[in-house]
């Protein structure tokens, strides 16, 4: 393999492993966000151009290719403009790094990427995030087949996504040391900027969590198990955001098929559970200040968008409160295709 063909992967590894933590001093969560941006980019190159990582060169990363990738985030993945801009920022930062490290090879890549403007984020009045009604949450939590290990994991994962209001990365990062079983059970979440917060979960979620811990033979009191991650995939002990997304996608698809009169949004994401618990807390009478603390928003202004839920939505929540849960079945677990770039997938 030529030096040119190796250059992108070699520099990306140095960028992730050395530059971001040691030169920029970014937190582990910020570095994870950079990693994820490039996971998505390389998956896009593989899906659309059949380019495996070792075949990607700087000429592969043309301005048109990056623009198409950013468009695909919105069109195919349902990402917001804000998320698109975050992915663009990660690529631009890498382009600036590569121009300093390998000027002649990386200059066209740098010149093209830095020409791509940040997309203007639409100004919205009120809350328009994709969230679930309480009836829909109940349906999703009944879908996993708990007679199977994968189903028990998925049911616990979906339950905690909703009960804790965790971001996908926060959920992936939960270790056994972060769990304090009791009445109530408390879970420590580590969010943006390595800030930690402790949230309590209801008793029914605690029951699900305890059964999952028992089935995995996880003993949270064992010192040697403290760093074990609560959730793992079929290939990694530390689950990735992409795996969480696939799990959510799988059960939403099942729910749409079985309940076509519900789940009306085109696409839901793990963040939809976070939106949902905020809306439901507000509907139940919790204050915006309490919701802000629960979700670890930097400003109460961020939380205020949930206050704009329409009376029609509030009435529907009230109508759904007493509807009985229905019994439904589930199938197999998704199997995401990992890329051969381990430094993008490790902590």
How would you describe what is shown here?
This protein is mainly alpha-helical. The chain has two domains: 3-122; 134-320, Intergrase catalytic core (hpI Integrase, Chain A, Orthogonal Bundle). The protein is 53% helix and 4% strand. It is built from 14 helices and three strands. The chain has helices at residues 3-23, 28-49, 63-75, 81-101, 103-113, 134-142, 149-164, 168-172, 203-215, 241-258, 270-283, 288-295, 300-303, 311-320, and strands at residues 179-180, 185-190, 196-201. The protein has a three-stranded antiparallel β-sheet with strand order 1-2-3. Helix 1 (3-23) crosses helix 4 (81-101), helix 3 (63-75) runs antiparallel to helix 4 (81-101) and helix 6 (134-142) runs antiparallel to helix 7 (149-164). The longest helix has 22 residues, at 28-49. The radius of gyration is 21 Å and the shape is globular. The model is unreliable at 1-5, 310-314 and 320-339 (pLDDT under 50).
Structure characteristics:
hpI Integrase, Chain A, 14 helices, 3 strands, 347 residues, globular, three-stranded antiparallel β-sheet, disordered N terminus, 53% helix, 2 domains, mainly alpha
């Amino acid at each position: 393999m030529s030096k040119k063909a190796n250059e992108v992967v070699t520099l990306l590894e140095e960028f992730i492993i050395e530059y971001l933590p040691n030169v920029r001093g970014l937190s582990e969560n910020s570095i994870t966000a950079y990693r994820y941006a490039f996971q998505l980019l390389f998956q896009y190159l593989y899906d659309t151009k059949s380019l495996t990582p070792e075949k990607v060169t700087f000429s592969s990363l043309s301005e048109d290719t990056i623009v198409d990738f950013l468009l695909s985030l919105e069109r195919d993945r349902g990402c917001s403009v804000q998320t698109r801009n975050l992915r663009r920022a990660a690529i631009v930062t890498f382009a600036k790094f590569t121009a300093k490290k390998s000027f002649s090879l990386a200059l066209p890549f740098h010149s093209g990427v830095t020409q791509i403007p940040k997309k203007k984020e639409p100004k919205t009045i009120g809350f328009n995030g994709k969230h679930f009604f309480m009836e829909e949450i109940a349906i999703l939590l009944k879908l996993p087949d708990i007679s199977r290990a994968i189903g028990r994991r998925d049911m616990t994962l979906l339950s905690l996504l909703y009960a804790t209001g965790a971001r996908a990365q926060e959920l992936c990062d939960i270790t056994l040391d972060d769990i304090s079983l009791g009445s109530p059970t408390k879970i420590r979440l580590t969010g943006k900027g390595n800030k930690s917060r402790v949230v309590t979960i209801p008793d029914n979620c605690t029951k699900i969590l305890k059964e999952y811990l028992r089935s995995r033979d996880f003993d949270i009191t064992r010192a040697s198990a403290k760093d074990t991650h609560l959730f793992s995939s079929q290939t990694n002990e530390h689950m990735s955001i992409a795996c969480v997304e696939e799990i959510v996608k799988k059960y939403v698809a099942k729910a749409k098929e079985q309940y076509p009169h519900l789940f009306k949004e085109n696409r839901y994401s793990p963040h939809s559970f976070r939106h949902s618990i905020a809306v439901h807390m507000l509907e139940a009478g919790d204050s915006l200040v309490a919701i802000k603390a629960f979700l670890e928003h930097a400003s109460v202004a961020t939380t205020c968008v949930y206050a704009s839920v329409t009376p029609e939505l509030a009435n529907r929540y009230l109508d759904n409160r007493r509807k009985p849960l229905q019994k439904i079945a589930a199938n197999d677990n998704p199997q995401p295709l990992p890329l051969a770039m381990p430094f993008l997938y490790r902590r």
